[in-house]
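Think of the structure tokens as a kind of shorthand, similar to the way a musician reads notation: each symbol stands for something richer, in this case the local conformation of the backbone. In the example below we present two proteins back to back. Begin with the first one, reading the sequence and then the tokens, and try to describe in your own words what changes along the chain.
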Amino acid sequence: AHVSMGMGNSFGRVFRVSTWGESHGSGVGVTVDGVPPRMKITREEIQRELDRRRPGQSRIVTPRNEPDAAEILSGVVDDVTMGTPIGILVRNKDQRSGDYDTNAVSYRPSHADATYDAKYGIRAVAGGGRSSARETIGRVAAGAIAKKLLTEYSGVEIVGYVHRVGSVAAQDVNVDTISLESVESNIMRAPNEASATAMIAKVDEIRKTGNSIGGVVEVVVRNVPAGLGSPVFDKLEADLAKACMSLPASKGFEIGSGFDGTYLTGFEHNDIFVIDEDGHTRTATNRSGGIQGGISNGENIVLRVAFKPTSTIGRLQQTVTRDGQPSELRGKGRHDPCVLPRAVPMVEAMVALVLADHLLMHLAQCSVMPLDSETAPNPLGPKARAGTIRSARQSV
């Protein structure tokens, strides 16, 4: 019989992750199963991603000071995966549980306090337990492994950035050329310096009042093979939506033209097919966002995730106590005035986990029987990137 971690703590089918730990416990971590053997992965590659999501990076995120140092417990020997479960632990170092003493009595508005109590009859008051964004450490660590697999296989590039803060939207973004280096060059993780300046000013304005602000993260994925995803319930965009909407504070998801596409007619919205210089079937536009019929078509996958303003704020608000009495509460502790800069690597990680899972499922089902070149369809999507496993195989 198949045994997995308790309800709601595991994700994926072939490339499967299970996260564990609480914000103010001894540590948090992840178990990653289904990783192909013989793949090189170093602790430094995992740590690089964790450093992007760690607290205390700048004045516009939480000042909690955590090194978030990854410890690989199993599944990797001499920087090579063994094909067995990979265990990763990050120890908590800077907990201040006393900041949450009033939360044991009063519920924080729009937080998970009341709903966790309603479901379990008990909750981890300090730090919010499993509802804390600290849980995402395991996702980001697992995402680093998934990114490495995708890069090795077909040169996949996953680049996320802050698309909008409140009403301040990024300008002059080219999804074909936007780079990790340009995003990481500013504390906002905006796509360019001009956009970053305007966004940072907005966050500073809000945080100085003890308030918080939300916005949108956009992610572009390049060099995805055509064919990932399955019909009906396992459509690629459906799994991407679930993955991204499982992140703390996420409130909306769209892909390609998204909700704006509803303003167009079919003739205006359709991505017409063309043949590129390599003789491959491509689309002239990409309003589909790289996915058609629930299956990747080889074009860039472009998606957006909306995040609400952080729930815990330093302003006095009306609430009720655990026993149902009217109360007032001012949030204490160290919290992000804007979750977006640290949400970028989180969204990237969830996208990578979905794509790695679908890649392994696709190869398992569709690469067993040989494809007759005389009856095969013209290749869909761009030519495989040189130097990748996909290019060597020329089978996807």
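Once you have a description of the first chain, move to the second and do the same.
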Amino acid sequence: MTVQMMRKSAKGSLKVAIKTVRKAETVTTKVLTHERTKHVVRSAKTRIHNSLAEYDGSCEEKVTEALANGANDVIVVRKSDGQLYSTAWVAQIGKLNSLFQSREGREVAIFVNSVPARVRMTVCGGGTFQFKRGPGPHTMSGEDLEELNLKPGLNEGRYVCPELSEVIPFSVFLYEEDQKLVVTDIDGTITESDVRGQVLPHLGITAQHKKVVELFDKMDKNGYGIIYLTARSMAQEEATKEYIFNMLQDLDGYSLPQGPVLFSPITFLSGLIAEVVTKTPDVQKTKTMNEIWNIFKSENNTRIEDTLVAGYGNKPTDTKAYVNSGIPLSAVYIVNPQGVLKNEGTGEVTSYEEQVQNIDTLYPSL
């Protein structure tokens, strides 16, 4: 075959190839305009993306060091279909607790009511924990949650790191999907002011607002769960729980009820900067509130105010956090250092004492 004939044959083959490609493009375009096909394609892309982004147990990059031990409590919700979902499992071993040993890569076991969890965690470079496998770095699957055999309400948990001889206690609270909850800040809301709440308990002085303990005690007795949401860091866990669950117990016959204590999962210094310097503690609080609501909401439970029925705070940033998460202004109460309590929606001014007197109207028995 001559060169000329080869060129002619190649041109002919190229024309056929181009014609075939154009025809295929036309057919493909027609197919993709069909809505059902588009949906299939989108679903396939999502599945591919999810499989590529599947959690592999690698530690997230952290530039800050955890200095002291601490853990957030965990909320678990049993949905109407029986499935279990939880908030993040977040804890840390502080540098001060392992000065002469490396924390990175150490294995952590989880026990709840002495039942060992099937999944284990690992300590990352900054001291924080992540699951070695599962849906995400801080997420436990429904199947693994089921294996814990949780009881309704309070369950005692422990993170155990044998290699570092560290045991970090925490709590797991199991609620049903229709549980009603009240969220409260701690410093300046339960305590008389931010400074007094941080300092005076270390001197053995409770410094709480008048009647605040009685109010939350009666809410609990009427069937409402209490969530303690604070901008404090997990490094302050021990002191915070000592204050809430030891010092503020059996005062004139009333006690702050057991409930999840959710800290800001950042370092003490970062938390202090957010609270005092940048004045943005609402950012993390909003994120936490959204996380709580996400595990409660369903087709049968679509309004956040049916689950998180009220929010108590002492600063505009508390109002911002509650409202940004979807709680109506009329369900937000802000207290000042003198104990004056204002409803942010209606402007009505009351006090903890007045709310105690009207407890069955504000929070009817469930």
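Compare your description with these statements about the second chain. DSSP finds eleven helices and 17 strands in the chain.
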